[in-house]
Design brief:
heterotrimer, A alpha+beta, B alpha/beta, C alpha+beta, A: alpha+beta, B: 2 domains, 8-stranded mixed sheet, 6-stranded parallel sheet, about 20% strand
Chain lengths: ~300, ~400, ~150
């Protein structure tokens, strides 16, 4: 049973790691190697936790199916005491499994940790000099916390009047990374999520009241790179045009700062963001700038 | 007629300069030259310093290079040292060098009669990667080979801290020919010093070079926690590269510390002494990095503060523990912890009698173990042994 | 002795200057021990580029087979290397081909261990000094998107 595997992985985590899972929020300032050392066991635990929760959900479906079969069995066996016992036991098992699943849910961390944060650190670490630190501000507490609610609009036509609609907007700036790359460029990468939750209660044709909740998520990825004039030629108007209207450019005496953003929309609040989107933003900058004198000098 | 120097002291560093290394060079070179009767000091210079200077028994020759590339400049300095050593190879008794750039040419001289002393204050193979991020491991290995040749072929090795000795031993140096000579300081009674006219009522002091491993950023962060004490100032008698100093100034502005800081750039030792005399606490917030942890150092700022009876708050690192004992001769905090540093500053500021006690203990320790006289005596004993 | 043939980095490629240790059983080029892994199935040394590419191909095949499952899933073999550098090497080859990115090449290292050559020297040019953060140093507080 995967549940025990997940629990054992959780127990193997250090108190700091367990604390991070519980708190979900921390500011880090460490080398990519140290950060990966910290996140890797948590990511492995998160994976087995998700698998265990999926498995427990399957068990619940199996129990429900067995209860259904048991009820048919009672009818067929015309009141055999064992036939009564089985659905009762299964019924309690469902509660037990649901409890275990809820327990795992409490220590489950958002998939962004293993699906986004870890790959980003791993890959950026490849382009950093040894010992260079990453400043990382991470908030994986949850996307729909009351503290993150920015707006709540209610469309309520009154008592017993339908449909009623509540639109809640949450803002979750959960990822902020700052570091310096091997070419001397300073990098800042942020991800701000905006979650719109639409709760709609309506009356159907038969007069029954139905409620439905729908989420929309918008990830706003922002990458800014401060490139040294000593390394890169100042971008010309021609270069800037290649970036399109997304580019924000700031010129300094010694550096030119390129800011790009990309917005991705989705509906699954729990799904992780694809790290490739960030690399594409950074790649666009590095592909379109010119070396100061000679490439790589 | 000019007297031929009997000894040579070479350092790939600007002398004089407002930093601990220059004090060290002065003290050790004088000890050597006094011991042998006369000497030649080979150092770097700049457009404001004479290329040739005679001060009593000490001749100073400076290489004023405008070569911007560090390694090329180091190679130029090597040629400069080699030319002098080759010329004086029969006259010199001892050649003392502070870095492999000076050491390799001194060891390269054929038919030399002099003994060599390698003074290891830092290993470029460890310090340079912190400064030049793109340095490759091959280049580092080549520099390490230079260093290795120096510690293998030099007749004696001196270093200012046990951490450096351990580092060298682990790298393969022969521990039996390494002597630890801690940095020293001149004992000064702060009450005899006239304080700067514009000195504030109460202030902390940071003095010396401001390389990334010194932890000035940590101190700045700590100062942001002390904004509730507007009368408290931090005096920085800082030396370092222009861009680094400019960066730190900008950083201070960005952190909103303009009102809390008093900057003094590249001021003389006398001015530093005046400011130190009036300071409540001296701070040495060294960073926990390989330069401080593995290579080691012996911060002169700590030793000088101790010699003036000033309590020092410093990072709890092995190199610092060689000098300070927590709550006895100093106050140790975990490195890279600005909040902890701010707390320590508050504690010591709130308890002047504790400051006095720690300062007095520090001064006592400095007067017994950390004087340039003590260092000079140890060094003289080594020279005598080599010449015997 | 031959040097490792691996290129380090993602946006910027640099030559690995460690001496080569063994040859990759797939591409036959020589690599240092840091850039080789022993493939569990075959017990043969494989370089990180080849191993990474295999991992990426496996993952893509798996994703095609699991069209119903939208969540990001990996097999155990892939997981073993997920946090290893091997993953980065596979990802980068996939990224270069899918995003048409061509990395900057920050020069090769020297093969001569005796004296300092131009490759060693260039690192020490003033422009390479990372300890001189500029006046316009990156400001983490500033948001360039605020206009």
């Amino acid at each position: 049973m995967k549940f025990f595997g997940a629990v054992s992985k959780y127990r193997k985590l250090s108190p700091d790691q367990q604390n991070f899972i519980r708190q979900g929020q921390q500011k880090f300032n460490n080398t990519p190697e140290k950060l990966l050392e910290f996140f890797k066991p948590m990511a492995e635990f998160d994976k087995s936790c998700d698998e265990a929760r999926d498995q427990l959900l399957n068990y619940i479906f199996i129990c429900v199916a067995l209860i259904f079969l048991g009820v048919i069995g009672i009818a067929v066996s015309s009141g055999h005491p064992l036939a009564f016992m089985l659905p009762v036991i299964l019924f309690f098992m469902i509660f037990l499994i649901m409890f275990l699943r809820w327990m795992l849910g409490r220590i489950d961390i958002h998939n962004n940790l293993r699906g986004f944060v870890v790959p980003i650190i791993n890959l950026l670490g490849q382009d950093m000099t040894a010992g260079q630190k990453i400043i990382l501000d991470l908030d994986l507490r949850g996307k729909k916390l009351p503290s993150k609610l920015k707006q709540c609009v209610k469309d309520d036509p009154g008592w017993f009047s339908y449909p009623k609609t509540t639109t809640s907007t949450f803002e979750d700036p959960w990822f902020n990374l700052t570091t310096e790359l091997v070419d001397g460029s300073k990098l800042m990468l942020t991800v701000d999520d905006e979650i719109t939750q639409l709760d709609r209660t309506r009356k159907n044709a038969r007069g029954k009241i139905k409620s439905k909740s729908k989420d929309k998520i918008k990830h706003m990825i922002r990458a800014s790179l401060a490139l040294k004039h000593k390394k890169y030629a100042v971008a010309t108007q021609n270069d800037i045009e290649k970036f399109g209207s997304d580019l924000k450019l700031k010129n300094g005496q010694n550096r030119q700062i390129f800011g790009l953003k990309h917005v991705v929309k989705g509906t699954d609040v729990e799904a992780n963001l694809d790290p490739k989107l960030c690399f594409e933003l950074l790649g666009r900058v590095f592909m379109n700038v010119q070396p100061a004198q000679q490439k790589g000098s | 007629m000019q007297i031929l120097p009997k000894s040579l002291y070479a350092a790939f560093d600007t002398y004089p300069a407002p930093k601990g290394a220059a004090v060290h060079i002065r003290e050790f070179a004088q000890t050597l030259f006094t011991h042998t009767g006369s000497g030649l000091l080979l150092v770097l210079g700049d457009e404001n310093l004479p290329s040739w200077q005679i001060e009593g028994g000490m001749q100073i020759r400076r290489l004023a290079s405008d070569e911007p590339n560090y390694l090329k400049r180091a190679m130029q300095f090597g040629e400069f040292v080699y030319a002098h050593a080759e010329m004086l190879r029969s006259d010199l008794q001892i050649a003392h060098f502070r870095d492999p750039w000076s050491g390799i040419p001194l060891l390269d001289v054929q038919d030399r009669r002099y003994k060599t002393v390698y003074e290891v204050n830092a290993l470029p193979s460890i310090e340079l990667p912190a400064r030049y991020g793109a340095i490759s491991s091959t280049t580092c290995n080549k520099i390490r080979l230079f260093e290795k040749r120096c510690w293998e072929e030099a007749d004696w090795i001196v270093c200012p801290s046990q951490v450096i000795k351990n580092c060298l031993t682990e790298l393969g140096a022969n521990a039996s020919k390494i002597t630890v000579i801690p940095n020293g300081a001149k004992l000064i009674d702060p009450t005899q010093i006239s304080l700067p006219a514009d000195s504030p009522e109460q202030y902390l002091i940071y003095f010396g070079a401001v390389q990334s491993w010194q932890g000035v950023e940590v101190l700045f962060k700590a100062m942001t926690f002390l904004r509730d004490m507007p009368e408290l100032k931090l005096v920085l008698c800082a030396s370092g590269s222009k861009p680094r100093l400019k960066y730190l100034q900008k950083l201070a502005v960005r952190m909103g510390l303009e009102q809390q800081l008093i900057w003094h750039f590249k001021v003389s030792q006398t001015v530093v002494t005046e400011w130190l005399a009036g300071a409540a606490i001296s701070i040495a917030p060294l960073v926990e990095c390989s330069r401080n942890l593995i290579q080691g150092c012996c911060p002169i700022k700590i030793v000088e503060s101790m010699a003036m009876g000033k309590p020092v708050i410093a990072s709890d690192l092995p190199v610092v523990r060689e000098l300070l004992e927590h709550n006895q001769t100093g106050w140790l905090i975990r490195p890279d912890r600005p909040a902890e540093l701010a707390r320590a500053i508050r504690i010591l500021l709130a308890h002047p009698q504790e400051r006095d006690r720690i300062g007095e203990n520090a001064r006592r320790k400095a007067s017994t173990d950390l004087t340039w006289e003590a260092s000079a005596n140890t060094l003289k004993a080594i020279y005598s042994q080599l010449l015997a | 002795m031959e040097n490792c043939n691996m290129k380090r980095g993602f946006f910027f490629l640099r030559d690995c200057d460690h001496p080569a240790h063994q040859s990759c059983s797939v591409c036959q080029a020589s690599f240092c021990s840091e850039h080789l892994r022993i493939k569990p199935e075959t017990n043969e040394p494989v370089c990180l580029d080849c191993l990474g590419r295999t991992m990426q191909q496996q993952q893509q095949q798996q994703q095609q087979n699991q069209t119903l499952n939208t969540r990001n899933r990996r097999n155990d073999y892939y997981d073993d290397y997920y946090y290893d550098n091997a993953w980065c090497y596979g990802y980068r080859s996939n990224y270069y081909s899918s995003s048409h990115y061509s990395p900057w090449y920050l020069g090769n290292s020297s093969r001569n261990n005796s004296q300092f050559n131009d490759q060693d020297m260039r690192v020490f040019d003033n422009s390479a000094d990372i300890n001189d953060p500029d006046a316009e140093a990156f400001d983490p507080e500033a948001n360039v998107f605020d206009s």
